[in-house]
Specification:
The protein is of the alpha+beta class. The chain has 3 domains: 76 residues, RNA polymerase II/Efflux pump adaptor protein, barrel-sandwich hybrid domain (OB fold (Dihydrolipoamide Acetyltransferase, E2P)); 90 residues, no CATH class; 221 residues, Chloramphenicol Acetyltransferase (2-Layer Sandwich), CATH 3.30.559.10. It has 9 helices and 22 strands. The strands form 6 sheets. Strands 12, 15, 18, 19, 20, 21 and 22 form a 7-stranded mixed β-sheet that branches. The radius of gyration is 32 Å and the shape is extended. The termini are far apart. The relative contact order is 0.10.
Length: 432
């Protein structure tokens, strides 16, 4: 009995995907519901499981192929059946079967400038010609110089490791002796090319993944379809940091998760969104849709690109619930386990560039949302408090918004309220 592996329904508005990679090869044994092939869509990567236990007998769509919903990916047979694949017989060469002949040996002679190379001949049972250093000369003394005995150990090490021909180098030491500084200066003038250049050449061309293409398209749409404007403020993080420090141990012991900064920002944003509902709204043609729920999207950087999963109904969540959900969703994002539902329905976005060391930025809207808050790194800066200069941990905040729907007064007041609630986090518990 054979079962077909088909492209499943991928989600809202998604009609095709790219075969990212097969997790099994033809002839491999698979279990029912075991992931067998990974598909890449515009939003997420998903794994297609085997419909039955058996043997993967056929692959119809190779890596990189674009497939539509319902398309045939391959087949799994209970009995195994005939595996449609070509096997390549590789000739194995045992180590003890390799015969080293004089023609394959390079002898290094310390008294000569160039090694003595014998005429090359074919080696039996080997595709390559191994080069073997004889015991006549050790590599560390095989230096092209007549004053080898005058080199210091440090200089000798640099010469050997970097394969430097010192015959043409004029030393700056006594009697023309070569010094370590001479070699360092030489290597500074003639640096080695980067490892990427050595491995891939001058340029490398790689096709953008579906996720990266989607990111590029959506960011460009935001610039073209919204009247983007950014306002800035700064927040003294002393009170939040003190609260975290005082309660971290008890919080983690009780809830099994650390108390981070993000939960404070999420709570502060919800309070501000309730006071300024237009920031939580979106434009649909000539109408404004006000959202009376609060789904906060937060940006997560992954190896495959930026994804923006959603925390739902955060106004109904405690600090602990927010931290738990952030941890769970972030792990899913980095493991490539996010679903379409995890990415849909956000009303406002928070982007934390501070984890990468960003001091200041202008975040781009996550359409169709009308606002996005940019967090940045916390740096001790001098500030004036009651006429005195004091050092405080300061974070710069940035609010990018769609000026078509949000006016300057609303955007500035919104960001100011976030600042006030973070500088006095007790306000978050009073909902003021």
């Amino acid at each position: 009995m054979s079962e077909k592996i088909l492209v499943p329904v991928l989600g809202e508005s998604i009609t095709e995907a790219t075969v990212a990679k097969w997790l099994k090869n033809p002839g491999d044994t698979v279990e029912a519901d075991e992931p067998i092939v990974e598909l890449e869509t515009d939003k997420v990567n998903l794994e297609v499981p085997s419909p039955i236990s058996g043997v993967l007998t056929e692959i119809n769509s190779q890596d990189g192929s674009v497939v539509e919903v319902g398309a045939l990916l391959g087949s799994v047979s209970e009995e195994g059946g005939l595996v449609k694949t070509t096997s390549i017989k590789k000739e194995k060469v045992k180590k003890d079967e390799v015969v080293l002949k004089e023609s394959n040996v390079i002898k290094l002679d310390a008294n000569k400038k160039e090694p003595k190379i014998f005429e090359e001949k074919k080696i039996e049972n080997s595709k390559s010609k191994p080069l073997v250093l004889t015991e006549e000369v050790k590599p560390e003394v095989a230096i092209k110089t007549d004053v080898n005995q005058n080199l210091s150990p440090a200089v000798r090490k640099i010469v050997v490791e970097n394969n430097i021909d010192i015959n043409s180098i004029q030393g700056s030491g006594k009697d023309g002796r070569l010094l370590k500084g001479d070699l360092i200066s030489l290597m500074g003038v003639n640096p080695k090319p980067s490892e990427r250049k050595i491995q891939y050449g001058e340029e490398e061309r790689i096709k953008m993944s579906r996720l990266r293409q989607t990111i590029a398209k959506r960011l460009k749409q935001a610039q073209e379809n919204a009247a983007l404007l950014t306002t800035f403020n700064e927040v003294d993080m002393s009170s939040v940091m003190e609260m975290r420090k005082e309660n971290q141990a008890d919080f983690q012991s009780r809830y099994g998760v650390k108390l981070g900064f993000m939960s404070f920002f999420v709570k502060a944003c919800v309070v501000a969104l309730k006071h300024f509902p237009v920031v939580n709204a979106e434009i649909d043609k000539d109408e404004i849709i006000y959202k009376n729920y609060y789904n906060i999207s937060f940006a997560v950087g992954t190896d495959k690109g930026l994804v923006v999963p959603v925390l739902r109904n955060v106004d109904e969540l405690s600090f602990a619930d927010i931290e738990k959900n952030i941890k769970e969703i972030s792990e899913k994002a980095r493991d490539g386990k996010l679903t379409i539902e995890d990415l849909q329905g956000g009303t406002f976005t928070i982007s934390n560039g501070g984890v990468y060391g960003s001091m200041l930025s202008t975040p781009i809207l996550n359409l169709p949302q009308s606002g996005v808050l940019g967090m940045h790194n916390i740096v001790e800066r001098p500030v004036v408090i009651d006429g005195e200069i004091k050092i405080r941990p300061i974070m710069y905040l940035a609010l990018s918004y769609d000026h078509r729907i949000i006016d300057g007064k609303e955007s500035v007041s919104f960001l100011k309220m976030i600042k006030e609630n973070l500088e006095d986090p007790r306000r978050l518990f009073l909902d003021i």
